[in-house]
Design brief:
The chain has twelve helices and 18 strands. The chain has 523 residues and is of the alpha/beta class. Strand 9 and strand 10 form a beta hairpin. The longest helix is centred in the middle third of the chain and has 59 residues. It is globular, with a radius of gyration of 31 Å. 46% of the residues are buried. The N terminus is likely disordered.
Length: 523
Amino acid sequence: MSGRWLAVVALVVTSACANASKTPPPVSPAKMAKVDPPDAPWRREATSTGWEPKIDAPKILIRGARVLIGDGREISNGHVLMEGGKIVAVGDGDGDPTGAELVDAKGKVVTPGLIDTHSHLGVYPMPRAAAHSDGNEITAPNTAEVRAIDAFWPNDPGIPRALAGGTTTIQALPGSANLIGGRGVTLKLRKATSSRAMHFSGALDGLKMACGENPKRVYGRQKRAPSTRMGNLAGQRAAFLKARRLIRDWDEWRTGEADRVNAFAEARADHAAKSQQRTERETWCAETNAPTADTKCKKWQKSWEKEPLDAPTLEPGKPPPARNLATETLAAAIEGKVLVHVHCYRSDDMVNMMALADEMGFRIRSFHHALEAYKVRAELARRKIAVSTWADWWGFKLEAYDGIRENAALVEAAGGMPVIHSDSKEGIRRLNQEAAKAFYFGQNSGVALKPGTWIRWVTKNPAWALGIEDRVGTIEVGKDADVVIWSGDPMSVYTSAERVYVDGLERHHGESRKPWSDFEAAP
């Protein structure tokens, strides 16, 4: 241990002033500040990149609109006031126009910006080419150390197209070839020259995991583990066991280091107090002529000769545990500093993953795709695990054969948290329609759903799944001004997003769409 951080040890020794007193001076008390050794790297990670732009958004008043709050409530004729990138007022009527740019939304609908929990924009960008394939690090079953933010391409032409569909926030994820594919990142869809400038400030990373067919197919073809579902769980279990050991090793190191350094600090404090006491007594002996002084001073002198005051030394400590980025990511997942998202289709695979989570001490935030979630919907609702799924995808591989169109509706009726995601550069452009389809499928089959439920599936629920529900997902005072003005009812295929605001800045205007990328610029 280098000992550089030991500068935080503070010793404050106080004492009474020595003078020609008739009694010996008292022992001076020592005060010491306890030290706290450096914590594990994953516990010290920042939740912001430092590249996020400062928001300087104008004051804008949208009025005359039907406002869908995002949680099922609505205002039939209301207004939304945005200023400085935040929503500052929501309510009935026209609102106060003082100092605001006015946007007439009569006959239109206003919603929160849509949120996609499962996107590969930027890591599998357009146009499709081998040079753009950055979503799967298919070199080992566990690549928890890789991060989507390092591969995301902000010039992907799919980004402005997603904005044109009303999507304002995405989680860009690694692919599902691996048991543990790496970290996803939550991004605001704003024009930028780097992924870090698009980062959703304060949002936790996601951990992409996969079960079922994908990892066993990819690695089975390579004649290596895993090649079965047994191998899948064994590999994931082994990886999380390493993470649990790393947490234990860090906690033990910090305890031992704190004990070692604090014991040294106490010894230094004691040494300082005794040294000062000796100085004070020597001064007292030299200046005091009391009859009893000679006897006391001779006694002290003998004790000082027998017990010399040697300064304490700090014994070398153990080095902290070695860095391992993959294992640190899993440790962060166990401690809730990274949110776990699992690609999983079959209900039995979901149950196995929940059992693994119980065994290893982590929580699953959302199952993705989850076509058989309806079979275990009560348990998913009890555990508060979101179900990020499609409206009607099914049958494209064996584990997708038991998908049904009522999946999201049945999860909702059971008290669960359905989310409509895209997993598609095309589907992300119509998340509103996908949610409307899923809502209709449920209603048409007799599932009791309250009106307005569908909007939660692409706003409030995905915001919770990404851990950003305090910032986005509903139109409420104090939240980010991520707002969409629709030409009509967002449930209709004839409706389009006319204006899209991200942090109160207009990022899409249907009448004046400008290309973001050279791949869409005309010659």
